[in-house]
Each structure stands twice: as C-alpha cells, then as structure tokens.
Amino acid sequence: MLESLRTRAETRRKAGELYGAVVAQARRPEFYTDLGVPDTPVGRYEMVVLHLFLVLERLRSAGGRGAPLDRMLVEAFIADMDDSLRELATGDLSVPKKVRRAAAGLYDRTMDYRAGLAEPSDAPLAAALARHIHDAPAGAEADARLVALAAYVRQSARALAEVSPAGDGVRFPDPPHSAGIPR
C-alpha cells in the first residue's frame, strides 16, 4: 500500500514538473511578439493548450505506460485554470463552468491539432491553429506566422518523440523569430 502511495506521489510530482515546462514554453515571448499570438489571457491559454497537447500526444504514443501521468497532467492543467480564473477575479459561482469550458477546449483542440499533424502538409495544421488562436492579423503576414507556428508544432512533436517525458522530461525547440518569417 505504501508503495502505491509513493508511486502516486512520484507521478504527481512528475506531472507538476511537466506542466511547469509546458507553461514555461507557452510563455516564451516569441510567440506573442513574433508569431502574432495575442498577449491576452485567451492567447496565453491557447499556447498552454497547444504545448500541453504536444506532451499529451507524446505520452499517448508511449501506450498504457503514460496513462497515470497524462491523467495527472490534465489534472494539473485544470487546477491551474481554476487558480488563474480566481486570480482574474472571476466570480466564484462561474469558475466551475469556465473551468469545464477550458477543459472541453483542450479536448476540442486535441482533435483539431491531431488531425492537422496527421496530414503531410502544414496547411491543415495552420488552419487548425488559425481557428483557435484568436485575433490573429489577416493577410499574408498572418499566413506566414501561422505556417511558421505549424512548422514549430511539427518540430516540437519530433523533438518530443526523441525523449521519454516520464523519465527525461520535455525539451521544446526554440520558437521561430520574426527574422525567419517571410513578409
């Protein structure tokens, strides 16, 4: 019994570390300054969800071995959404409803991003990113930014495939800079 409690505590600790890495990467300024992601609560949510999706997909590819870890990672996300909404002075009665909406958003985006990654071209993934990243500027510059973000997502998925999040943690590539994005 003690061993199962110790294992659960270790899994929870690892999930906390992974979620911290997800949030740290999602807060990289290049996403907001160079790729046009709005620096708003919604934009930051979208980036957390995008990076969380990538880690969850990596755990999913590991088979049943990642199941407890991915569940606790989602629990860390939900707890963070609850805390963030309360910090934003959201009324106590509406927090659970908004947290459910945030969790549902994770699953909706998972389906869209998974389908986009399954395609050989970056265009479907860029379209999925455009649907979810609000306030993206219109025109050729926005298209270049979305294509750069889609390429980054693919590069991240490849980088994560080379590590075991449960053992090694996660390493994301650097986000693209605007200097490398054609205008």
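Above is the first protein from milestone M3; the second protein from the same milestone is given next.
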Amino acid sequence: MRARILWIEGKRAISQVFSTALRKKEYEVEMVSSGSKALARLTEVDPDLIIVNAASLRTSGKRICRELNEKASGIPILVITDKNSTLTDTCANVVLELPFTYRKLLNRIAPLLPEIGENLVHVGPIRLDVEHRRVRCLGREVKLTPRLTQLLQIFLDHPGVVIEREELFRKVWSTEYIGDTRTLDVHISWLRQAIEEDPRKPHFLKTMRGVGYRLDVS
C-alpha cells in the first residue's frame, strides 16, 4: 500500500511539478484548495502526511495547522512558506521555505512517513499493517498486540459477516471453550478503542447479541 499525502494549495504552480514527481515515486497525492476542504475530506482520504502550501494560501499556516492538529492528532504536517514567514516548527513537524528542490522535499517527507509492511489489509477507512501490528482509522494510528492484530484481521477478511464467538475463540485463542467470555469482551473493547470515534457507540464493530460480532464498513 502506498503512502497517502493530502496536499493543500491555493495556487497549483509548484504542486503540479512536485505532485507529479511524488506520484512517480508511488505516493498517493490528493490535492485540495483550502484548509476547510482538507478538514472535510480528512476522514475520507486518511492521509499519512499533510502538506500545507501556506505561501500559496497567503497565510502563515498557523490557523490551518491548529485546526488540522485538533481533528487529526498524530498525522505529521509539513508547511511550505515564503522567506517572510514567521511560522515555527511548533506549529508543524517540518517548515520548508521556498525555493527548494524536489530532492529536498523528498528528503524531508521520508522521515515523516510510517514504515509500511508488505502484508496490508485495507477495508473502508480501516488500514491494518499486519507486519508491524498497526491500524490506521479516522486519522489515528494505534499499535496493536499480536492477538488484537489477529482478531482485527479476521473481521477485515469478512466485512459485513456476523462472526460467532465460538469461531473467534477457535481462531484467535485456539480453543473450543467459551465458558468465560470476558477475555473476548475485553479484546473487543480494546479493538473499538483503536478504530472507533466513540467506542461506547461503535460505528464499525457491532455486537450481534447472543451470536457474535460484525464489522460494518462502507
């Protein structure tokens, strides 16, 4: 799976050159023309990195960075500024002043992106890196235990299908005994904390009372 970049730019003068080059490096680049449009598409795009060309927006970038950090905590932000900008690294992970080369941009991007494994499962807004036991959903990335990784992969392999408790115990815990369901309940709770916006009102991982669980994704 390729790393995703959400690029915010008012004028396309430099983005056309850089975005084409980044796509050739197999990055996915999604372009939007304002901070408000970026916020609206944040969940849909679920980027690994956000680039804000503040110079093209005729702004310092502080407000946009603040709003992005509030809604997408944990996603690194690179801001492009002109030489008169007063923006500091406290507002973004990297501040890059114009002019610069594509090679310099690439060198600054690389350390901000997560290491992506070969075994990846992507269903709806949920992206599971099985190799590194990481899940990304709704703009957040969470490290999982081996058992939670295995449990989530089962659901991702069968979206929309009710999976019975007995089957989950058999596949994840290698046992037919389901007399004490607290272990499964606790793991489901942890999984919801990783992927749900509100774990108490799950949108994705639904309880099918008396049967098991179902992963609902669009």
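Note on the second protein: The radius of gyration is 20 Å.
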